[in-house]
Design a protein that fits this description.
The strands form three sheets. The chain has a two-stranded antiparallel ribbon with strand order 1-6. Strands 2-3 form a two-stranded antiparallel ribbon. Strands 4-5 form a two-stranded antiparallel sheet. The chain is built from one helix and six strands; from the N terminus they run ββββββα. The chain has one helix at about 70, and strands at about 1-5, 5-10, 15-20, 25-30, 35-40, 50-55. It has one domain (about 1-70). The protein is mainly beta. It holds the Pfam family PDDEXK_5. It comes from Gordoniibacillus kamchatkensis. InterPro entries: PD(D/E)XK_Endonuc, tRNA_endonuc-like_dom_sf.
Length: about 70
């Protein structure tokens, strides 16, 4: 299980601000330790600042080590 975070962080105030569709379409995360990635359409976050991706079966598993989200946007 991996967690993708979909926000920008203000370095001064520490405030987290979620992205919107005018800024990004897809959130991509790469795990150096496991040499794997996940990419999830921003709309799939439903306004939340983070989302879980399962490596096998489960939540958003179709986005694990796959570029399928590119065909969905």
């Amino acid at each position: 299980m991996y967690v993708l975070e979909a926000y920008s962080l203000n370095p001064v105030s520490g405030e987290k601000k979620g992205y919107n569709r005018t800024e990004v379409d897809i959130i991509v995360g790469y795990n150096h330790k496991d040499d794997c990635f996940a990419e999830v359409p921003l709309d799939d976050f439903n306004g939340k600042l983070s989302g879980v991706v399962h490596a096998k079966e489960g939540i958003r598993s179709k986005y694990f080590n796959s570029w399928v989200a590119l065909s969905e946007i």
